């Protein structure tokens, strides 16, 4: 697969040749070849997986990205594209014999069309920057992963990253109208358009969430929504996670779709409160944060209904934000839960499984049992509205064998998610991290079908090789181990 | 209400062995759509029935041959609905057909399309393998999304056998405002009103009248009526049904019906042909004896795409033509799922 360069010459020769070729069109500060600086690019947000790339390149134009891809295609050099590197599944881990293609310099907002309610941006634009740019027009971009202050929109597309507001506003895939992509061969393709539907195969959902395995996205047109004129968040505390789980189902059953519905368990509440002082009660087992947004009158009506419902279903405390500052503070606790847990444990490992809402209590109970079995604490922070769990397994990387134990525990949580009808990743992606668990969700034929799709888009296998879908031989080995 | 998946797999295997094309057919309500194509019928109508419905999960799973009308009745009992409001076409349209043909009703810009509501599918690929993609949960990024990729593929990427779809609660109140205006004014009003955070769920213009459907909490709807004004439409549900089912008088007759999916703020096309605007301006139906090339030109000027939806020449191309690199990707993707080219060949494009 990796053509003549590897077979006839060493890595160093390949590196030298690539630098020579790329220096013909890239300025010297766009090529990083020294070991020290390359170290910065060794991993994404999941630092347990590290690889030094052969080279990192930072092109500042689509034309240069295209030239890089054409060159890599010709020479069979692997290419791993990345944005801000906030991914949590080792999806942007470099290939040691390939190029790490940083799209960070493609960071311009190209056009905002308030009349058509769209923004066209380059992939290196930060998620939050889009909403900030269109705020004066009374518009916003809905998908808001917790890392939105840093993560790039290109990475959001690659992972179909969602965030807290998916229940009402959908995932990335629901909020993208079009993009321009470079194929593995370096050919420019426009997918989608300014209208809502397009003729031919719907390649948007196929490529969004494909973890950079099918193409490199160079321009994106997103949908913008009118900013709701009111939003309030209701915080409700419960003395058991079961009651909180029932309250989640209760809201949905009432016909109310909150903008966000988030849940935290005891560890997460404690850690977040110590960190942010959001005013969370700390002597409870579970906390719900339920945001209602929309027309002012509608928000008032629904807030009252939800408050009553939470009390009826056994909430020990209910508090509703009375100002935007209070709302922001209540959310700040939730958004800081991950770093907050980082303060009470030397290390933590964030999982990303999805379950049907009705399985919440069962899954939490099973996780508690497993936590005892492994002797590792777990804090839970999750998007209860859409069943997306983010268990944070606390461990100490300095204790020999503890990371391995953590990984095994995490894998079992994901398998549990599949067993109850869910899936192994909701928004972080498979990357390298969950490749082992793919077999618990898909049969060999299904995995083979994925490989055929990959082959259709990237016959040379240069784009982000080894991620996302296990190669079948390896997959079969895993199966036999499992048996 | 039966599961005939095994029979369907057998028929696919036989067709594959003999390299014989199959024409996939559910309720036969959309035979007018796409290009005229031939092949042995693969009848999906017997593969029907709801497999699972959990109202509190907001998800329904049904076999592809299940009629939309039947699904609606079941959802009605729980005051829930299909967000994408697909046409029923005299009760014959099926869930699988809605996905394959990508049919969404007037709420499309606000509540999404059939693809947006889709969570998972089972499909039979060209090797006769019965595969499952996606699932029943809202978030799922494991593997490539081959479920949503079925949307609008007109059955050429596999036989859809089962769908899991997200449903939504029915709105508390629904009412429609009507304002008199010409097409250009209507487009400007659509731009202005769609930018406001109001409970819109459909915006359509036809026959010199702009129709604004409001859905949501009672107070929100009431306050919007106060802000916007206009006459309240009586029997509004009937009007929207005519638009959804394409039975409004605009759709009568044999004159070719063109469907233009464009940028919603694009100015009127200005070719004097009768026009109906839906989706807040993003969908424009045009009645005209015209060529695909001419309609493509119009659509491109409005930053969108054209297709010949009903009537006219069904032997030529009927869908907006693709750029060469996109065309190449289509052929390769088709080969990845249907290597022998047995599913609905020629229905979407002559070369596919």
Automatic annotation (TrEMBL), chain A:
Q: What is this protein called?
A: FAD/FMN-containing dehydrogenase
Range of residues in the leader sequence: none
Q: Which UniProt keywords apply?
A: FAD, Flavoprotein, Oxidoreductase
* Species whose genome carries this gene: Hahella chejuensis (strain KCTC 2396)
Please indicate which superkingdom the organism of origin belongs to.
Answer: Bacteria
Kindly give the PROSITE patterns that the UniProt entry links to this protein. Answer: FAD_PCMH (PS51387)
List the InterPro entries. Answer: FAD-bd_oxidored_4_C, FAD-bd_PCMH, FAD-bd_PCMH-like_sf, FAD-bd_PCMH_sub1, FAD-bd_PCMH_sub2, FAD-linked_Oxase-like_C, FAD-linked_OxidoTrans_Type4, Oxid_FAD_bind_N
Q: Name one GO molecular function term.
A: FAD binding
- Names of the cofactor(s): FAD
Q: Which Pfam families match?
A: FAD-oxidase_C, FAD_binding_4
Q: Does the keyword Oxidoreductase apply?
A: yes
**Upper lineage:** Bacteria, Pseudomonadati, Pseudomonadota, Gammaproteobacteria, Oceanospirillales
Q: Does the keyword ATP-binding apply?
A: no
Q: What residue ranges are annotated as transmembrane?
A: none
Q: Where is the FAD-binding PCMH-type domain?
A: 49-227
UniProtKB/TrEMBL annotation, chain B:
User: What GO molecular-function term can you cite, just one?
Assistant: FAD binding
Q: Which Pfam families match?
A: FAD-oxidase_C (PF02913), FAD_binding_4 (PF01565)
Cofactors: FAD
Per UniProt, residues of the FAD-binding PCMH-type domain are 1-170
- Superkingdom: Bacteria
Protein keywords: FAD, Flavoprotein, Oxidoreductase
Which PROSITE patterns does the protein's record reference?
A: FAD_PCMH
Q: Which InterPro entries does the UniProt entry name for this protein?
A: FAD-bd_oxidored_4_C (IPR004113), FAD-bd_PCMH (IPR016166), FAD-bd_PCMH-like_sf (IPR036318), FAD-bd_PCMH_sub2 (IPR016169), FAD-linked_Oxase-like_C (IPR016164), Oxid_FAD_bind_N (IPR006094), Vanillyl_alc_oxidase_C-sub2 (IPR016171)
Q: Which SUPFAM superfamilies match?
A: FAD-binding/transporter-associated domain-like (SSF56176), FAD-linked oxidases, C-terminal domain (SSF55103)
Q: Does the keyword Ribonucleoprotein apply?
A: no
Name the PANTHER family for this protein: D-LACTATE DEHYDROGENASE, GLYCOLATE OXIDASE SUBUNIT GLCE
* Record's protein name: FAD/FMN-containing dehydrogenase
Q: Which species?
A: Hahella chejuensis (strain KCTC 2396)
């Amino acid at each position: 697969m990796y053509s003549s360069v590897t077979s006839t010459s060493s890595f160093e020769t390949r590196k030298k040749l690539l630098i020579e070729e790329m220096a013909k069109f890239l300025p010297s500060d766009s090529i990083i070849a020294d070991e020290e600086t390359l170290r910065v690019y060794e991993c994404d947000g999941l630092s347990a997986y590290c690889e030094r790339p052969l080279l990192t390149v930072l092109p500042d134009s689509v034309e240069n990205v295209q030239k890089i891809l054409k060159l890599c295609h010709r020479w069979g050099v692997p290419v791993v594209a990345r944005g801000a590197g906030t991914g949590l599944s080792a999806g942007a881990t470099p290939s040691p014999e390939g190029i790490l293609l940083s799209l960070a310099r493609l960071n311009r907002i190209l056009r905002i069309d308030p009349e058509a309610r769209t923004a066209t941006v380059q992939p290196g634009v930060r998620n939050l920057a889009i909403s900030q740019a269109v705020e004066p027009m009374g518009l916003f971009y809905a998908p808001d992963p917790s890392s939105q202050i840093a993560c790039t929109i290109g990475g959001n597309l690659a992972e179909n990253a969602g965030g807290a507001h998916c229940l009402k506003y959908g995932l990335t895939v629901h909020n993208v109208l079009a993009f321009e992509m470079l194929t593995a061969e370096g050919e420019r393709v426009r997918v989608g358009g300014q209208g809502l539907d397009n003729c031919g195969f719907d390649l948007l959902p196929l490529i969004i969430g494909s973890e950079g395995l099918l193409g490199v996205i160079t321009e994106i047109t997103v949908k913008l929504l009118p900013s709701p004129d009111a939003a309030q968040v209701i915080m409700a505390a419960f003395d058991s996670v079961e009651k909180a789980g029932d309250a989640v189902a209760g809201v949905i059953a009432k016909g109310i779709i909150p903008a966000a519905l988030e849940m935290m368990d005891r560890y997460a509440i404690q850690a977040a409160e110590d960190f942010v002082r959001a005013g969370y009660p700390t002597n409870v087992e579970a906390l719900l944060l339920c945001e209602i947004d929309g027309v002012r009158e509608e928000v008032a009506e629904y807030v009252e209904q939800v408050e009553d419902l939470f009390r009826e279903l056994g909430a020990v405390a209910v508090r509703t934000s009375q100002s935007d500052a209070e709302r922001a503070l209540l959310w700040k606790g939730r958004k800081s839960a991950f770093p907050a847990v980082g303060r009470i444990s030397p290390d933590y490992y964030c999982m990303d499984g999805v379950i049907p809402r009705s399985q919440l209590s069962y899954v939490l109970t099973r996780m508690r049992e497993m936590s005892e079995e492994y002797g590792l604490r777990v804090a839970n922070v999750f998007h209860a509205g859409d069943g997306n769990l983010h268990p944070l397994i606390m461990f100490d990387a300095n204790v020999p064998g503890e990371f391995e134990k953590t990984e095994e525990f995490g894998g079992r949580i994901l398998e549990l998610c599949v067993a109850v009808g869910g899936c192994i990743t909701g928004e972080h992606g498979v990357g390298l991290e969950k490749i082992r668990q793919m077999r618990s969700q898909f049969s060999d034929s299904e995995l083979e079908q994925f490989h055929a799709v990959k082959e259709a888009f990237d016959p040379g296998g240069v784009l982000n090789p080894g991620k996302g879908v296990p190669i079948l031989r390896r997959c079969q080995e895993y199966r036999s181990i499992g048996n | 209400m039966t599961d005939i998946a095994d029979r369907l797999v057998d028929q696919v295997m036989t067709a594959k062995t003999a390299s014989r094309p199959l024409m996939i057919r559910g309720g036969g309500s959309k035979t007018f759509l796409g290009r005229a194509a031939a092949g042995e019928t693969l009848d999906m109508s017997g593969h029907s029935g709801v497999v699972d419905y959990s109202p509190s999960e907001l998800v329904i799973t049904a076999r592809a041959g299940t009629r939309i009308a039947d699904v609606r009745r079941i959802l009605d009992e729980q005051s829930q609905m299909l967000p994408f409001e697909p046409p029923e076409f005299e009760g014959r349209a099926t869930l699988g057909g809605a996905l394959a043909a990508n049919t969404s009703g007037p709420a499309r810009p606000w509540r999404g399309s059939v693809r947006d509501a889709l969570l998972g599918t089972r499909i039979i690929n060209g090797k006769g393998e019965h595969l499952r993609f996606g699932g029943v949960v809202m978030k799922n990024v494991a593997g490539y999304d081959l479920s949503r990729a079925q949307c609008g593929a007109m059955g050429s990427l596999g036989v859809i056998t089962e769908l899991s779809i997200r449903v939504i609660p029915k709105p508390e109140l629904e009412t429609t405002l009507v304002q008199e205006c010409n097409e250009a004014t209507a487009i400007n009003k659509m731009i202005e009103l769609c930018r406001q955070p109001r409970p819109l769920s459909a915006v359509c213009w036809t026959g010199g009248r702009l129709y604004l459907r409001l859905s949501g909490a009672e107070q929100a709807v009431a306050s919007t009526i106060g802000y916007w004004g206009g006459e309240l439409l009586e029997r509004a549900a009937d009007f929207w049904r005519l638009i959804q089912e394409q039975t409004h008088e605009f759709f009568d007759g044999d004159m070719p019906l063109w469907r233009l999916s464009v940028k919603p703020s694009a100015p009127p096309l200005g070719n004097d042909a009768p026009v109906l605007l839906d989706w807040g301006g993003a969908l424009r139906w045009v009645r005209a004896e015209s060529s695909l090339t001419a309609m493509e030109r119009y659509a491109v000027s409005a930053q969108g795409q054209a297709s010949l939806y009903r009537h006219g020449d069904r032997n030529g191309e009927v869908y907006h033509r693709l750029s060469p690199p996109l065309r190449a990707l289509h052929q390769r993707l088709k080969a990845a799922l249907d290597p022998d080219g047995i599913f609905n060949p020629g229905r979407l494009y002559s070369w596919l």
